[in-house]
Every structure is written in structure tokens, then in C-alpha cells.
Amino acid sequence: MRGLNNKVVSSQNSLLLLHLILSEEGISRTELSNRSGLTKMTVTNIINEYLKSDWIVESKPSQSEKQGRPIGSLFISDGAPKFIVAEISEKQIAFGLSDIKGNNSFRQVKEYEETESSFLETLYSGIDAILRLAISKRIKGICVSFDGDVDPISGDLNKANHPFFKDYNLVTKLKQRYNIEVYTSNSIDNIAVFERYFGLGRDEDSFLYIHIDSEVTSCLYINGKTRIVNSNSGTNIGHLSIDYNGLSCGCGNRGCLQSYISTSSMEKKLRDITKLKSDFKGFCEMQSKKNDARIDWAFKDMMDKLGFAIISFLSLLPVISVLTGTR
What we know:
This protein is α+β, with helices and mostly antiparallel strands. It has eleven helices and twelve strands. The protein has a five-stranded mixed β-sheet with strand order 5-4-3-6-9. It has a three-stranded antiparallel β-sheet with strand order 10-11-12, covered by helices on one side. The protein is globular, with a radius of gyration of 23 Å. The two termini are 17 Å apart.
């Protein structure tokens, strides 16, 4: 990531430095300048603003420096703003209070019935409880993580075959009730963001994140700043067909990767070939303790299909880049 020495993009530069401090706590001002490409004066001005607002703290300079001015290290402050988090999945909502490093507290899970009234009652009660517990905290906003599609512009929630999550404008409802900023995003997108800044993708400008669960979903990063997550955009590898005459998928197509390698699909296959009753995790643990040729074959077949899909997906990247304007 590189910054720009221009007042017009000061906000972008501020976020860039915050990202670097988040992913590499203990970094110095000089290192920030080298990593970002920003001048030392620009870095100093931005860091001083963060220090003033108690977003970050700076350790005492090391006295071991042989020449020049001693260098201190920068860390995220305990007093930095917090965010209320609501992770919405089918029939339940997980609540928490998160700092900008992703550390979560006050975590609680509540179930709701598949009606809008039950959903809103559960959502509001969970947020209200956190506000009461965190009354002395600096609450910056409410972050909604949704197990489904999220419109990148309006923030509307969408999930196929759900009784009310169709073009559902939750942002307006929450803003009207709490008068606070509201951010919505896809659950897989959030995981990929953490991978981008804290995991294996931290030094990569472009990568494909694949999440295998009861659904197979993906997140595509291009040029270190663009991410595309939408099962309807053509960029979700789970609904890439690996056999045009294959198994029927809930999306209406045939031969989708998800129909073959999701955890639920693998559970069924493994139960059929072993005649054992276990879940996906159980079969994985079983195989790690005692090698079973039948289970080994099923997992190899799973990897073959995933590999084929990845190759097909990568061959489509030039087209995806043109269609989404990310080349």
C-alpha cells in the first residue's frame, strides 16, 4: 500500500497509516514513512492527530539508538473508539463490542423467529444491552455482518428464499433508532479483511479467499484495495459450474462447486461410503487419527474439484476485472 502526498487525499493517507499500525503494532514513524511512501512531515502530522484524539499511543523512545533522534513505537490505544457488532445469520444474531483491532467483548448470541418483528425485537434488545454495559465507552458506530448479500452502495441486505431479507434496508432503521453511523458488510468479506491485514494475505496485493462451510463462498481482492463479494456478481467460486450436466444447485444451475464440496455435501458422501454417522469435523478428526482409504479418497476428490474450479476461476479473472472495473 502506498500513500499520496496531497491534502485532497488526507483521509486516505490517515486510513493507510492506521492500517499499517493495526497490522504491525510497534512500528515507528520512520518505518511508516518508508512503508507508505509518505513524507516524514505528513506522517508526523497524521500521527499527532491520532495521538491527540487517543486513537494511538507512542511508547517511550528507545535509548539504544546510536545516532540521530531516538525512535518510539506506535500502538492502538485502549481508549480508541469501539464498535457495536451484530453478526446476523439464519435464526440467530451474535452481539459484541469490538475495538478496531477486532477484539470482541460482551459477546452474546440470541435466536429470533423468521419474522421481521421478531428479528427487530431481538436486534434492538441486543444492541440496547451493549449500550447499557458500555455507557462509558466511545461508540463509533454499529457494524452489521450479514450471512448473505449486501448492496455495496445502499447497504441493503439480500438473501434468497428468506421471508423478509430481500432489499431489506436495515441501515435506515438503525440510524433512526440510535442516531449513529451504521455499516453493513458480508460475513465472508469481514473474514477476508482480517486475512488481508493480519493473516496470510497481509503482504499480497491480490488474492482469492475461499470459505468452505454449508455454503462455499469467496472474496476476491484485486490490487490490494478492491474486494468483490456477491454471490450474484459472478465472482463467487461456490456457484462456478464444474459440470454442466451435474448435480442441481439451489441457485438454479447445475454442477456448482458448492454442490460437491460444501461441508453438508461432504458429510453425505462420507456417510454413504463409510456407513458411519458423523459430521464433517468428525470425519476430519477420524482421518487425522487413523488413515481410512475411503475417507482419503473423498477428500482427494474434494481437492481435485476445488483445484479445477480455482483454475477455471483464474482463467476468468481478466473478464471479471473488465466487468467490475477493477483492472
